[in-house]
Every structure is written in structure tokens, then in C-alpha cells.
Write a structure and sequence with these properties.
The structure is a single chain. The protein contains 12 helices and 18 strands. By secondary structure, it is α/β, with parallel strands linked by helices. It has one domain. The strands form 4 sheets. A 7-stranded mixed β-sheet has the order 5-4-13-14-15-12-16. Strands 7-2-1-11-18-17 form a 6-stranded mixed β-sheet. Helix 1 runs parallel beside helix 5, helix 1 runs parallel beside helix 9 and helix 4 packs parallel to helix 12. The longest helix has 30 residues. The two termini are 29 Å apart.
Length: 385
């Protein structure tokens, strides 16, 4: 059996690895000529970690991960702590650690595990055709590839999504802009073993430790979409938006190399109820594009990959039947994640100022139980518990 995998991002590579481990041959095609991951880092929560562990990458992932032992929120202007608590109760309940990692390093780990020379870069899919023998994918260079089924892991701007779902949905602007990157770890800004977030005015400044004595940082600001801003103006833009924030935030901004700052307008897509058409299955952002507000976009793609491979390996009524079973296991789970992230987004970014103010007030009395309970609920909803 042979699978065509469209997309060599996190979802596509995890799927290719998972499929090969259950005895399915794969051919991976990627539109770009060179992989340049979008975003500086990713928080792989324990549900995602378990997926990579199950695929044999436990040691490699741990080597790339930062030590995120605590979580803390600080007041935007004074810098004083609102709450701080250990993540150990979460680890003990779900049975695994969270793994904040540099996205490029995670991507390289997946590609190297699969085999970089095997990936065919510069192959942008244009359309697919199903026939009695399986599926054929056509590419913009005029070439084609045939297989028994196809996995469309071609991202939030998926070429194949509308063909599979039978509808075209526009991306929904979530209402805020995110700046992110990597910076040398500095404990005068935040502790080296803590996820630290400064909050106020519907804005956020957050830092997570990753390997190599670095912080992954991000800034969020509610803004209209389409502003004439880019990397060239990023540092000055951040100084303006956070000019009266606490001293650690100012030190962080001053330490940034403007040429390495990513600026992203955040979107999601209304959840779909269909991921499969015949022998073609959507996976990852192509199936369920979400905001990053609960850190589950990449994890959900990893879950998809594991479930897809499990389903194909454990059912014998044919490929189309197995893909529909994959769909049945993933539609509600991913819908829940997209809507949870959207709800969280609205609270943290002051869609309703009174709701956000109440959240800030609640943080002053937060001991960790409520936050961790919500995280555990999300994590334990994954396919590996």
C-alpha cells in the first residue's frame, strides 16, 4: 500500500513516519524548495509529546526541549506577580512533560527521522483525481504521482481542502497580531525554568524556555488587520505598543534583533465536519486551522497522524472505510480544540473588556488548580490519553 503525502510540515512528516511504521509506503511532496518553518517555536504539550514518543522520537524530543517547570502571570505595568505555580501536578496526572521547542529544530528532527533525501521539494499540488486503482496527484510542473490514498497536509492555505469538504471557507481574523522569535535566555527578564506571561490591556508578552539557553518569546496586540507594518518596523512597533510596560518587557524588546522577528496576523477557520473524500484525507491545519491560544495546533496534527496510521493498520474493510473511521475519531476532537482556542483568544485579547478584566482579577487568586485542570482536560482528550 502506498500513501501520497502532500506537505512536509509537522503534520505531513509525522503522518509519513507513522504510516511507514505500520508498513505503508509513502511519498512526500512539499511545495517550497526549502523548508522555512513559520514561527520561531512551538509548545508541544504532553498529548503531542506522547504521539512523538510512540513514533520512537522520545530521546530526540527531550534533547530539544526547554525545562518548563513553572507557570506565572505578571501585571503588565508594575511587573508584580499575579500568580505562580508548578506544572508538576499536570505532569503527574497526564504522565508526560510539556516540551517547548524551536520549530526549526522540531521540523528538522521529523525530516531527518523520515529521511531528508526522500522528500520531493518544489512540488506544488494543483489537483487530484480518484480512479479505480487509487489516487493521482498533479503538480504545477506537469508531473504526477499515483498511490492508494492521499494525505493532504498542505496547511491552512490548503489547495485540496475545498475539493475534499465541498465548500470554500475564508479564514477568520482573530483580532490580534503576534510577534515572535528566539532570544538568548536572560534571567533578569524571566526565570529559566518558567513560562512567564505579562498581561494587561488585552495584550500579552510571553516567554518560554527552549534548549540552547534560549527563550521563545511572543507579543500579542489586538489590532485591525492589514496594517502597513512588517519586520523592518517591528522593534519600533513593539516599543510603541508596550512603551509603559514593566522593566523586564523593556529589556526584552531592547534585546531583540529586528531581522529575526516574525510578525503574524492570527486567523482560524470555522471547523469542518468532513475531512475525507473517498481516498483523500485532510490532516493538520488543512483540516482544522486554529489560533495558537491553547498551544494545540501542532499537537492536533500529531494526533491526526497517529490516529490515521492506527486506523489503517487495525481495520480490514478497505482504505475508504478506514479513512472514514479516522474522520469519525478526529472531527469532534479537533472542533473542540479550535473552539476552545477561540474562546481563550477572546478572553485574553479583550474582545469583551469586562470579561478580560475579570480574568485579570481572577489571576490574583489563582493557585493553579483551575488552570491545570483545563490543561489536563485538553491533554487527556488525545488518542493516547
Amino acid at each position: 500500500m502506498k500513501a501520497i503525502v502532500i506537505g512536509a510540515g509537522i503534520g505531513g512528516m509525522t503522518a509519513a513516519i507513522a504510516l511507514e511504521q505500520v508498513g505503508i509506503d509513502t511519498a512526500v511532496f512539499e511545495a517550497v524548495k526549502e523548508m522555512k518553518p513559520v514561527g520561531a517555536a512551538i509548545s508541544v504539550w504532553p498529548n503531542g509529546v506522547k504521539c512523538l514518543n510512540a513514533l520512537g522520537m522520545k530521546a530526540q524530543l527531550r534533547a530539544l526541549s526547554g525545562n518548563m517547570a513553572y507557570m506565572a502571570y505578571h501585571d503588565a505595568h508594575s511587573g508584580t506577580p499575579l500568580t505562580r505555580f508548578s506544572l508538576l501536578p499536570l505532569v503527574q496526572q497526564v504522565g508526560e512533560y510539556p516540551s517547548p521547542v524551536a520549530r526549526a529544530e522540531l521540523q528538522a528532527m521529523l525530516i531527518d527521522t523520515y529521511g531528508r533525501p526522500r522528500i520531493r521539494f518544489g512540488k506544488r499540488v494543483t489537483h487530484v483525481e480518484q480512479h479505480a486503482r487509487g489516487v493521482t496527484a498533479w503538480f504545477d510542473d506537469g508531473t504526477q504521482e499515483s498511490g492508494d490514498f492521499l494525505v493532504a497536509a498542505d496547511g491552512t492555505h490548503s489547495v485540496l481542502r475545498a475539493w475534499v469538504t465541498g465548500e470554500k471557507r475564508e479564514r477568520r481574523y482573530a483580532g490580534y497580531v503576534n510577534w515572535n522569535g528566539l532570544v538568548t535566555l536572560d534571567e533578569s527578564i524571566a526565570p529559566a525554568d518558567q513560562w512567564t506571561t505579562f498581561v494587561g490591556e488585552g495584550k500579552r508578552v510571553s516567554l518560554m524556555p527552549v534548549s540552547g539557553q534560549r527563550f521563545y518569546y511572543f507579543f500579542d496586540v489586538p489590532l485591525p488587520k492589514g496594517l502597513a507594518q512588517d519586520r523592518a518596523s517591528a522593534k519600533q512597533d513593539l516599543k510603541s505598543y508596550f512603551r509603559d510596560w514593566a522593566a523586564p518587557v523593556q529589556r526584552l524588546i531592547e534585546s531583540l534583533d529586528a531581522s529575526t522577528i516574525n510578525r503574524v496576523e492570527i486567523h482560524d477557520i470555522e471547523p469542518f465536519s468532513r475531512f475525507v473524500r473517498g481516498r483523500v484525507a485532510l490532516l493538520g491545519d488543512a483540516a482544522h486551522s486554529t489560533t495558537p491560544d491553547i498551544g494545540q495546533g501542532g499537537c492536533a496534527a500529531m494526533e491526526d497522524a497517529v490516529v490515521l496510521a492506527q486506523t489503517l493498520a487495525t481495520h480490514s474493510l478497505g482504505i475508504e472505510d478506514a479513512l472514514l473511521r479516522y474522520q469519525a475519531r478526529r472531527v469532534e476532537r479537533t472542533r473542540d480544540l479550535v473552539l476552545k482556542a477561540r474562546k481563550r483568544c477572546d478572553v485574553t485579547h479583550a474582545r469583551d473588556a469586562a470579561v478580560t478584566a475579570a480574568w485579570y482579577a481572577d489571576l490574583r487568586n489563582e493557585t493553579g488548580e483551575r488552570v491545570l485542570a483545563g490543561m489536563c482536560d485538553t491533554i487527556e482528550g488525545g488518542p493516547l490519553g
